Amino acid sequence: MKLLVVGGAGYIGSHMVALLAERGHEVVVLDNLSSGYRDAVLAGTFVEGGVEDAALLERLLGGARFDAVLHFASFIQVGESVAHPSKYYRNNLVNTIGLVDAMVRHSVPNFIFSSTAAIFGEPEYSPIDEAHPKRPLNPYGLTKWMVEQVLQDYDRAYGLKSVCLRYFNAAGADPAGRLGERHEPETHLIPLLLAAAAGRSGPMRVFGRDYATPDGTCIRDYIHVSDLCSAHLLALDFLAANRTSAAFNLGNGNGFSVQEVIEAVKDVTGKPVPTEDAPRRAGDSARLIADSRLARERLGWRPELADLRQIVRDAWNWECSSGRLKRP
């Protein structure tokens, strides 16, 4: 297929581009490099620019017949979305509407959207399935849920087919060591712990040790970035075969506590991990675990890198090989 990957220079997008190229797809990457990196684009044709550039979208989509667009170009920081909601509504919602409008004009039939478990809000039960009520607690989650509803309307009105993939906690790095996670600023637990273990940062703050969990720390469902990418491939096949829109939760279906992740980082790196306790953060749930049975049943998806230490090991190997950290 000929595919446009929007946000293909970022963390998940760059891993996706590499996998698509390995599978023989023709890939065009569109990224404005506001949070991505040009050297992370290992394959395909790179176009510097963003979905906010309507004229550029017209040239791209009007100049080639694309089979699908994969969207990874959202802003993702929950705290920032609360402090600066305009940034999130403009990029995550308005710019995405502009993109799908351009797709409709140029008869691009399929759309893969990176959604999030943040659409569910405070869980009423766990594991969380697709039918769980959607009550986002912040503009980040709300913009993702709004886009999902937009896509439902665009399917009914224009026939645009989409698959929304609701990530839980993306983690890890390319097992071959070519790509990894480098957000600025970094907010994800595993790279922050690796930086603390390597002495590249101060102690890692543990927000709350009094939750109703076995060790008192929050439990989250971590999913290897490579397993996320395999789900996107299967979603493309699903759309081609079924011509119907759908939404799927993506997680391993089991959770690990913050303390368990700390212990895994200690084991993998061979170093102590300095931490300091802090009060609970507002909005943090005790458990967020995915029920991914629907993705397994309808996509045939099976996470292959579900072991926590494997996830941490791949992240550590990339951090070391990239020169960001030093091995013990």
Q: Can you lay out the helices and strands and say which pair or pack?
A:
Blueprint: E1 2-6, H1 11-22, E2 26-31, E3 45-48, H2 54-63, E4 68-71, H3 78-83, H4 85-105, E5 110-116, H5 139-158, E6 161-167, E7 169-171, H6 189-197, E8 204-207, E9 219-220, E10 222-224, H7 225-242, E11 246-250, E12 256-257, H8 258-269, E13 275-278, E14 287-288, H9 293-298, H10 308-321
Parallel strand pairs: 1-2, 1-4, 2-3, 4-5, 5-6, 6-11, 7-10, 8-13, 9-14
Antiparallel strand pairs: 9-12
Helix pairs in contact: 1-7, 2-4, 4-5, 6-8, 8-10
Describe the overall structure.
Helix 1 (11-22) crosses helix 7 (225-242), helix 6 crosses helix 8 and helix 8 packs across helix 10. The longest helix has 21 residues, at 85-105. The chain has 328 residues and is α/β, with parallel strands linked by helices. The protein is built from ten helices and 14 strands. The N and C termini lie far apart (44 Å). The chain has helices at 11-22, 54-63, 78-83, 85-105, 139-158, 189-197, 225-242, 258-269, 293-298, 308-321, and strands spanning 2-6, 26-31, 45-48, 68-71, 110-116, 161-167, 169-171, 204-207, 219-220, 222-224, 246-250, 256-257, 275-278, 287-288. Helix 5 links the parallel strand 5 (110-116) and strand 6. It folds into two domains: 2-168 and 223-250, NAD(P)-binding Rossmann-like Domain (Rossmann fold), CATH 3.40.50.720; 189-220 and 253-321, UDP-galactose 4-epimerase, domain 1. It is globular. The strands form four sheets. The chain has a seven-stranded parallel sheet with strand order 3-2-1-4-5-6-11, sandwiched between helices.
